[in-house]
Target: Solute carrier family 35 member 2
Amino acid sequence: MTAGKNDAGAEDRATNRNQSEVNRKLKYISLAVLVVQNASLILSIRYVRTLPGDRFFTTSAVVMAEVLKVCTCLLIILLQKRFSLKETLHLLLDAIVFQYRDTLKLAIPSLIYTLQNNLQYVAISNLPAATFQVTYQLKILTTALFSVLMLRKSLSRVQWISLLLLFAGVAIVQVQQEGNKEASLANSANQNYMVGVVAVVISCLSSGFAGVYFEKILKGSSASVWVRNVQLGIFGTALGLLGLWWNDGAAVAERGFLFGYTGMVWCVIFNQAFGGLLVAVVVKYADNILKGFATSFSIIVSTVMSIYLFSFHVDLLFTAGAGLVIGAVYMYSLPKAPGSSPSSSSSSSSASSASPRTDRGVEMEAFLPKCSAKQKGS
Model:
């Protein structure tokens, strides 16, 4: 009898060890995925927007990414229903049409996410990739502030300090870039630094508001994240087409929807469409510390790659500013001290998930903005 209990205990311990080993490996895989997705999207957009020759319409790229997201989510729902078209259609009809009030709630975040996606193209087209990556971390600040104002959440002292450091770091980077602006403009006649800064600031504000608003209106909802993405994608596609008609309608009518599309452009669109979805899948294995570390490391990767790809110049001011931002992102994601209030903990989760696209709860924002339920992923 005793021997049997010992054998059972040994089996349980072995199972737990194996599970722990699997989880540890998944964490490292999650880290790699988060870093690659965060850095690659920004670098690839910057690359295709600075190539000589015909430029694709960014508004069409935003629409195409939304269409791909909707198709992917529909396929996942179909798989969940074991390829039963009848059950899938019944689910979608009930969630989207019969519960139309619930669907209409997503119109506002969808509008903001569509605006954010277009602004990201504008910002990255006019700013160095590393500068954009650093400045875009202001979305952590905006998400935290909107969480306090709209959801009445509280932040710990360490989080407030980290937000101040974040703002200081971004400000230092902007001072450094302002000093180098004349030199950079000589090499980049088609780029406007102030347009890029305004675009990234508005994008950060919209990202923070959309993520918190999404959390506020959908708290307690029973719908799956895939259904939510279909609902968001429907609005996103419609609003994206409206933006395309308003901004590039005549040019698209003359040259075609896919004008300027190359293999690299398709890679950017697929990264934007599926990157957030991929992050949403792996983020369940990544705690806040890992996500903060991934964001920090992606800034380093973007900076190093920018030096080689775009001859980006790193000086002492940029290093100091980026260092403050990296430290602030990591500090913000640290676990709360014992005795912290649940609301404080919840606020941290909400803000740090706002990381590319982006994107539930707020964890999926990257894809919903692109599934940060973003990520929220630059």
